[in-house]
Amino acid sequence: MNYKALAERLLPGQYPALESYETRYPLRNLPEKAEVTRLAPSPTGFIHLGNLFAAIANERIAHRSGGILYLRIEDTDLKRKVDGAVEAVIKALEYFDIRFDEGAEIGGDETYGPWYQRQRAEIYRAFVKHLIEEGRAYPCFCTEEELSRLREEQTARKEVTGYYGKYAKCRGLSEEEIYQNLDAGKPFVIRLKSMGDPEVKHTFHDEIKGDITVHENDQDVVILKSDGIPTYHFAHAVDDHFMRTTLVIRGEEWLASLPIHIELFGALGFPLPRYGHNCSLMKQEGETRRKLSKRKDPELSLEFYRKEGYHPRAVKVYILTLLNSNFEEWYLKNPEAPLEEFKFTAAKMSKSGTLFDLDKLSDISKNELAKLSAGQMRDFLKTWAEEFGSEAQKAYFSDEEKLLGALTLCMGIGGKKRRKDFTTASQAMELLRYFFERPAEFEPYRVEETVKHALLVGFLKTYSPADDAQTWFAKVKEVAAENGFAAEMKDYKANPDAYRGSVADVAEVLRIATTGKANTPDLWTIQHILGEAEVRARIAAQL
Questions:
Q1: How many C-beta atoms lie closer than 10 Å to residue 57's C-beta?
Q2: Rounded to whole angstroms, what are the CA distances from 362 to 94, 256, 288, 358, 368?
Q3: Which of 19, 43, 200, 431 is a Cys-bridge partner for 85, taking CB atoms 3.0 to 4.6 Å apart?
Q4: How far apart are CA 339 and CA 337, in angstroms?
């Protein structure tokens, strides 16, 4: 068969000499052992925890080695493309402080761009044409219906599904048959002519899992689709070579494709980058574990963490505990240190499924938020509210003094021990509501209505915003005693039957009337922040 003539018929026209691409995309001028890593999502509009998992690993490995992290958009599948998806990816990753050195919508060293695969079509076609000329690729005219029937037949026979061996019917077409199909205008794809034997296995060193066994590829995979755009398999091989990627950290679901990628790099004459396949994120469900699911688990989406308002450092800390087995110990010893100081390595990444625990993330988030100053917390909440908050919540920030006072109290700033009431921005804004909005709902009072009325009236008679905390509490004790409650806790504990309750019960009534809640930080401080007019109005509304 005249492969050169066939290549010209299938992909007509002149393409640059393949050697010119090596000059056009030279080796990067980086320090010895510097790693070039990448994140390469598809623009589907859904960026998930697995993307962040890989992004953090790739970012740490690249930057700790003095290397490069770039963002490539794998947009070869137009059916899945969503408008605005790339911007959403970048925005989500920026929130978690993933710092790219170059890439799509980021810029950087233009030498290795463009970073959208559809903009690199000429390069792929040049190499596909070369493979056809070498007899390593061929046209396939099978329709979707034929391929579907083929899969059904293989499934019924309990055989491996795919286009290979005796099932690769277009592989054996004669030159005459190929040209007859082309002359008839039949659409075609280009497939790799695999030379592998699946019975042949060899050892492959995975940067995360260690030495693993890999069989040779025998699948004649599609490398160029009928629209002239390559498949992911082919495009990623060409791009990783010419973007000079040294290390690919990706999910273990790609292990099944590793034989294909090994053969593709070999067929193209490119050195294979090192691969590390990180473990799947698992969720405990009863007695079993399962992979996090886009359909079942909202926490798989990165948008979930932004909408809930998890602090980005908290999420990053938690993921690092999952990524490197020695991170948690380091973090406990260095809780204030920049995370960049941790010596992250691929070798310490988990080799098997990792359990993702939202409760543990929440605990870490409480700790991280408790470290912030009132001003830092205000800024964090304001950024969240501007994007996700209600109009009422956005208005909280118009009264700077009240907000900072509320945050100082609720975070225990200046006290003996910092409070850890806040977990996320959304939850914190809800906890702060009673400082800015009068309660619409009230937790139940544990006293009779007439007793509640008497306690509130008694409090209003003596209440003065000029009172310090001790004077204020002394007046509460007086109201308690006047209404049959023990003014001193020791008296109540010694003889509880002699009283309606204790001064603590009276304080609870005042707390609910003021905030709607039975448990809050210091009530005197809350009332001081609210101001006399608001305190009197709220309590009067409960009479």
A1: 26
A2: 21, 34, 22, 6, 10
A3: 43
A4: 6
The enclosing H or E element of 45 equals: none
Superfamily of domain 3-15+121-278: HUPs (3.40.50.620)
User: What is the chain's Cα-based Rg?
Assistant: 33
pLDDT at position 351: 84
Structure confidence at residue 50 (pLDDT): 87
Q: For residue 273, what is the DSSP state?
A: P
**Predicted structure pTM score:** 0.89
Task: Provide the β-strand partners of residue 276.
Answer: 249
Residues in the chain: 543
State the Cα–Cα distance between residues 307 and 305, nearest whole angstrom.
6
Which CATH number among 1.10.1740.10, 3.40.50.1000, 3.30.360.10, 1.10.10.350 corresponds to the domain 449-540? 1.10.10.350
- Enumerate the CATH 3.40.50.620 domain ranges in the chain, comma separated: 3-15+121-278
Q: Where in the chain do CATH 1.10.10.350 domains reside?
A: 449-540
CA distances from 174 to 170, 189, 500 (A): 9, 17, 100
3-class SS at 456?
Answer: helix
Q: What is the dihedral of CA 294, 299, 302, 308, to 10 degrees?
A: 140
Closest CA to 512 of 458, 452, 463, 464: 452
Other C-beta atoms within 10 Å of 503: how many?
Answer: 22
Using the structure block, give the residue that is written with the tokens 């970048």.
Answer: 90
Q: What is the DSSP string of 161-186?
A: -SSBGGG-GGGG--HHHHHHHHHTT-
How far apart CA 430 and CA 538 sit, in angstroms, is 19
Question: Which of these, 426, 405, 412, lies nearest to 526 by C-alpha position?
Answer: 405
Residues in the chain, pLDDT under 50: none
Is 371 among the residues known to form the active site? Answer: no
Alpha-carbon distances of 345 from 3, 37, 234, 327, rounded to whole Å? 46, 13, 29, 10
d(CA 98, CA 206): 24
Residue 117 CB contacts under 8 Å (≥ 6 apart), including other chains: 72, 73, 74, 75, 76, 229, 230, 235, 239
pLDDT of residue 280: 87
Catalytic choice (4, 169, 201, 294)? 294
Give the Cα-Cα-Cα angle 14, 16, 20 (nearest 5 degrees): 170
Report pLDDT digits (tens) over 13-64: 999 999 999 999 999 999 999 999 999 998 887 788 988 999 999 999 999 9
